[in-house]
Amino acid sequence: IGIGSTGNDVTHMLTLPNDSTGNNGKAKAFAYATYSSRRYKENIELIEDPLDLINRIEGVTYTWKDSGYSDIGFVAEDVGKIIPSIVDYEPNGTDAIAMDYTRLNAVLVEAVKAQDKKVKAQNDKLEKLIILVDSVHSFQHKKINSIFTLLNPSK
Predict the structure, then answer these.
(1) Of 116, 112, 103, 100, which Cα lies nearest the Cα of 50?
(2) Which of 31, 66, 87, 116 lies at a 20 to 30 A Cα distance from 132?
(3) pLDDT for the residue 5
(4) How does strand 87-89 pair with strand 70-73?
(5) Whole-prediction pTM value?
(6) Cβ pair 89, 97 in contact under 8 A
(7) What does the alpha-carbon distance between residue 114 and residue 128 come to, in Å, rounded to a whole number?
(8) Which whole-number Å values give the CA distances from 1 to 10, 14, 18, 91, in the listed order?
(9) Are 95 and 11 a contacting pair, CB within 8 Å?
């Protein structure tokens, strides 16, 4: 169904116009649900190296050509080089039509978990270093007191 779109512009079951003026290309709802049950999936694997993926994609600001509206997002062709499964292409396989921003959530969740794991490992190392420094400080303090006692014998 094309709403405000006709002919070859209708590329999905529901297509709105690629129009940034007013509300022509916008959709609004209380919620959007995506099929996600395990029973619909196979070959399920964790996302490999999500921090690398996040570090390689670039968030950008830009202006829409049709309206001059300033916006923020991604360039689908660039993201498609890194995470091709979230980008829809024209039949030529080169020009992007759109990208599914919501699918980035899975990468972001795994990236946060990977970052948290790194932070916890660094905190563990820092705690061990603090214990070591405290131990060295205590040892040095005892040695200094011993030297002080030797240099200043009781009268």
Answers:
(1) 112
(2) 116
(3) 84
(4) unpaired
(5) 0.76
(6) yes
(7) 22
(8) 7, 5, 14, 19
(9) no
